[in-house]
């Protein structure tokens, strides 16, 4: 605590022992423009030997020099230590500043924080992954994880809905997933022009027909809160157990470590008790307005 | 409580406490009068204490008045809490120096100062314990808070004269202390006799006590001190029935009564500023004009501000009743789910310093009644 | 005819329907196929039929000046297409176009409407089921209206 100058030589785990508000500097290696307002950053640690391990569903606090910090889910492959990948929408001051960064610029990282998707608990079950809009970003690590251990799971189904075809993330990857025989991928858009030949309709319309056994499935859902609410209702209607349904909540965070109080949702701190929640543990939040 | 280990120090020798603490290198903070209130600040001698002062508190009102007795601790509680000295309202966390296209973090220099708090009320002692759970004992903690706590010497003062807004008995946080202190005093003023029954609660406390002129307490002195504290327990200004309150609040989340309170509440956040357990903070990242230096600072924050909780669509608690409800429910109900105890210690500051005198005991009681 | 009766009897939409009523439906039913790009019905024309889609995909769309065709919903194998035949003035509100080769069972709505007037039991069975369809469409449309994903790409 009395170190006058901290070189960026420590690993993430060491730093948190000293002061959990210190950031690790990472360099932007690649910027991918996903849609008109969504982009992915691929990051490498500046100090050597960055052993960054995370569980699918966790997030980092990303710092833009002099501007601020925001929580962003990690959306890369959990089995690969680098690059560290974050996909985000430019909606606020910090994310808009982030969008202007170039390859070679620096981002500060703190994390990983938060709870994770039940990838271990889902072994032996069918897995239904329902993503809405940018909600596919926190779920992509689940797909990497499951597909690397394919024989441990039953049927794996990906249902992805966006506003229009142009809003879809990871399009090349979606094509690859669609061509796999061990994964069922269904895409839909809320509206489209004539050149889209796929499904048109809200993402909940894909649930009834998707090939999974509701009595033996684990569902993981991520997207805007309303979309998750409607999706869960549809899943429950089809017979999925609410104790096997998981969602990811979002709230503003200043510290990400349970000390600033901003992310509280009732009795829960979204940064520590979430962002991934089992549905039955958080369902009261869905009907209590302004909690 | 081991009565054999209790001693008595005379009023004339009270300064020796300060001298002993100074000699050990402690920076002493205690109550003192400033701007018509009793606040906590660095003090060097017993004479700086609010000698002969007391205060009168109601909902939305605080009056400092002269007492007939020249007691040192005859006042009740001022607007300041000890958290100001353990978790400062404003703090620089680190500085970053721009270098090339990256930056280097320089951690804010912080020396662990040895602090002594003289005059910690039982409710305040409990509040410090409540904040320990959050700021020191969680999975992530504030390193400075931990260091300050390790180097903190607490002189607690039992209450014999509770105020109108006090309800520590309801919250199991007073009017007497049982542990968690280095020294604990009960001030006894009988007109001609003015002395303090004192006990050490730690090795450090014993060490300091040895440097102060003292003698073993006589049985009748001990009895009177105990009785004084017992009497205080029966003179509480208010009470809060905590039985089953957590469930009642959870079940009445949608009560229309919150809207009734909101008609009066200004969402000014005074209650959060004077509450000894509120811990919410804001983190701000800035640069200087040239951009070559960046800073991260931490500030006290309040859940009453409209953008305290938001997602990119907008504020979560946009109505004032939702923010009042958040504060009350967090303090009484959610806190129990999160940390195992309520966040309220019954000090009554929120009642005193609310500009419109909203009373947490009354409002919680009303929700219970309307349930 | 036998084949159509089996298919309709097994279709989830008609679960619990009397054999007698199903046979009435069969009497109004026939097989139909649409080539890729072919219109199944057009906005404004008489709505005198509904379809059990057996294979392929149909897009429900409308034409907006300067924007071209906007697709608001797609229907696939296993789904029912068309409820306007039940609601006066019995006109289609949208275009329906086959996006790929589509095969369906078409039911003569005009004929069925008359039969429902004569046999109210049949009418009630049909109304009950289409009620669910219309309610579901309404809910999904409301969800679509909420525009939950925020600003769009174009």
Question: Can you characterise this structure?
Answer:
The complex is a heterotrimer of chains A (291), B (371) and C (154). Chain A folds into two domains: 12-113, Translation factors (Elongation Factor Tu (Ef-tu), domain 3); 126-248, Rossmann fold, CATH 3.40.50.80. In chain A, 18% of the residues lie in helices and 29% in strands. Chain A has six helices and 16 strands. Chain A has helices at 12-18, 93-99, 136-147, 171-178, 225-238, 279-282, and strands at residues 24-33, 38-45, 59-64, 68-73, 84-89, 106-113, 126-132, 156-162, 184-189, 192-193, 199-200, 217-222, 245-248, 264-265, 268-269, 276-278. In chain A, strands 11-9-8-7-12-13-16 form a seven-stranded mixed beta sheet, with helices on both faces. A six-stranded antiparallel beta sheet of chain A has the order 4-3-6-1-2-5. A two-stranded antiparallel sheet of chain A has the order 14-15. The longest helix of chain A is centred in the last third of the chain and has 14 residues, at 225-238. The relative contact order of chain A is 0.13. Residues 1-17 of chain A have low confidence and may be disordered. Chain B has 371 residues and is of the alpha+beta class. Chain B has two domains: 3-234, no CATH class; 245-370, no CATH class. In chain B, 30% of the residues lie in helices and 25% in strands. Chain B is built from twelve helices and 16 strands. In chain B, the strands form four sheets. An eight-stranded mixed beta sheet of chain B has the order 3-2-8-9-10-11-1-12, sandwiched between helices. In chain B, strands 7-6-14-13 form a four-stranded antiparallel beta sheet, with no helix packed on it. In chain B, strand 15 and strand 16 form a beta hairpin. In chain B, helix 7 packs across helix 10 (320-339). Chain B is globular and about 70 Å long. The model of chain B has no long low-confidence stretch (mean pLDDT 95). In chain C, the strands form two sheets. Chain C has a four-stranded antiparallel beta sheet with strand order 1-8-3-6. In chain C, strands 2-7-4-5 form a four-stranded antiparallel beta sheet, with no helix packed on it. Chain C has a single domain, classed as Jelly Rolls (Sandwich), CATH 2.60.120. The radius of gyration of chain C is 16 Å and the shape is globular. In chain C, helix 1 crosses helix 2 (19-27) and helix 3 packs across helix 4. The termini of chain C are far apart. At the A-B interface, loops of A face strand 6, strand 7, helix 4, strand 13 and strand 14 of B.
């Amino acid at each position: 605590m009395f170190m006058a100058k901290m070189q960026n030589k420590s690993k993430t785990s060491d730093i948190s022992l000293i002061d959990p508000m210190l950031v690790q500097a990472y360099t932007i290696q690649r910027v991918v423009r996903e849609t008109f307002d969504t982009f992915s950053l691929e990051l490498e640690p500046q100090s050597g030997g960055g052993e960054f391990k995370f569980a699918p569903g966790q997030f980092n606090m990303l710092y833009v020099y002099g501007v601020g910090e925001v929580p962003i889910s990690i959306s890369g492959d959990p089995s690969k230590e680098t690059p560290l990948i974050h996909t985000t929408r430019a909606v606020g001051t910090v994310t808009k500043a982030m969008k202007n960064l170039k390859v070679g610029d620096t981002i500060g990282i703190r994390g990983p924080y938060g709870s994770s998707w039940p990838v271990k608990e889902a072994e032996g079950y069918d897995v239904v992954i329902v993503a809405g809009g940018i909600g596919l970003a926190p779920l992509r690590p689940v797909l990497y994880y499951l597909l690397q251990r394919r024989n441990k799971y039953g049927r794996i189904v990906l249902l992805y809905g966006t506003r229009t075809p142009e809003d879809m993330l990871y399009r090349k990857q979606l094509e690859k997933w669609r061509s796999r025989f061990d994964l069922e991928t269904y895409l839909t858009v809320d509206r489209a022009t004539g050149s889209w030949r796929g499904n048109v309709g809200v993402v909940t319309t894909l649930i009834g027909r998707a090939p999974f056994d509701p009595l033996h499935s684990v569902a993981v859902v991520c997207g805007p809160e309303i979309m998750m609410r409607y999706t869960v209702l549809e899943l429950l209607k089809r017979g999925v157990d609410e104790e096997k349904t998981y969602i990811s909540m979002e709230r503003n965070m200043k510290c990400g470590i349970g000390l600033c109080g901003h992310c509280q949702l009732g009795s829960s701190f979204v940064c520590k008790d979430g962002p991934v929640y089992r549905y039955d543990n958080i369902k009261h939040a869905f009907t209590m307005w302004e909690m | 409580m081991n009565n054999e280990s209790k001693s008595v120090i005379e009023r004339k020798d009270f300064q020796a406490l300060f001298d002993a603490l100074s000699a050990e290198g402690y920076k002493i903070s205690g109550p003192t009068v400033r701007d018509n209130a009793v606040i906590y600040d660095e003090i060097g001698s017993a004479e700086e204490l609010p000698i002969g002062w007391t205060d009168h508190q109601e909902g939305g009102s605080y009056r400092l008045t002269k007492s007939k007795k020249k007691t040192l601790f005859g006042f009740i509680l001022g607007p300041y809490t000890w958290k100001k000295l353990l978790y400062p309202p404003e703090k620089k966390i680190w500085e970053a120096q721009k270098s090339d296209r990256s930056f280097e973090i320089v951690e804010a220099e912080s020396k662990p100062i040895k602090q002594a708090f003289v005059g910690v009320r039982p409710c305040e002692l409990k509040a410090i314990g409540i904040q320990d759970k959050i700021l020191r004992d969680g999975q992530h903690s504030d390193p400075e808070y931990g260091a300050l706590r390790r180097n903190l010497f607490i002189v607690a003062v039992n209450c014999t004269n509770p105020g109108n807004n006090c309800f520590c008995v309801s919250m199991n946080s007073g009017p007497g202390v049982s542990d968690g202190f280095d020294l604990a005093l009960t001030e006894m003023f009988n007109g001609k006799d003015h002395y303090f029954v004192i006990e050490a609660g730690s090795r450090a406390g014993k060490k300091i006590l040895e440097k102060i002129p003292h003698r073993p307490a006589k049985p009748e002195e001990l009895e009177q001190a105990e009785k004084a504290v017992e009497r205080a327990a029966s003179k509480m200004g208010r009470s809060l029935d905590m039985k089953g309150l957590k469930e009642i609040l959870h079940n009445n989340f949608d009560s229309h009564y919150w809207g009734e309170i909101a008609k009066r509440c200004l969402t000014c956040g005074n209650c959060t500023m004077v509450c000894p357990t509120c811990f919410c903070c804001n983190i701000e990242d800035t640069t200087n004009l040239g951009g070559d230096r960046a800073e991260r600072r931490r500030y006290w924050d309040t859940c009453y501000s409209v953008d305290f909780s938001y997602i990119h669509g907008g504020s979560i608690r946009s109505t004032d009743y939702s923010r009042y409800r958040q504060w009350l429910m967090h303090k009484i109900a959610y806190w129990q789910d999160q940390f195992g105890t309520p966040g309220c210690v019954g000090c009554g500051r929120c009642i005193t310093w609310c500009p419109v005198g909203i009373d947490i005991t009354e409002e919680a009681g009303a929700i219970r009644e309307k349930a | 005819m036998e084949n159509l009766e089996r298919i309709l009897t097994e279709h989830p939409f008609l679960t619990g329907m009397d054999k007698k009523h199903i046979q009435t439906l069969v009497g109004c039913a026939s097989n139909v196929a649409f080539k890729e790009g072919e219109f199944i019905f057009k906005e404004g024309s008489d709505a005198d039929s509904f379809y059990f889609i057996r294979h392929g995909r149909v897009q429900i769309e409308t034409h907006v000046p300067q924007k071209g065709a906007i697709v608001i919903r797609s229907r696939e194998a296993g789904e029912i297409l068309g409820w306007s035949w039940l609601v006066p003035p019995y006109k289609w509100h949208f275009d329906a176009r086959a996006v790929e080769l589509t095969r369906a069972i078409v039911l003569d709505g005009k004929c069925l409407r008359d039969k429902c007037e004569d046999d109210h039991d049949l009418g009630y069975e049909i109304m009950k089921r289409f009620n669910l369809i219309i309610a579901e469409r309404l809910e999904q449309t409301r969800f679509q209206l909420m525009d939950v994903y925020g600003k769009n790409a174009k």
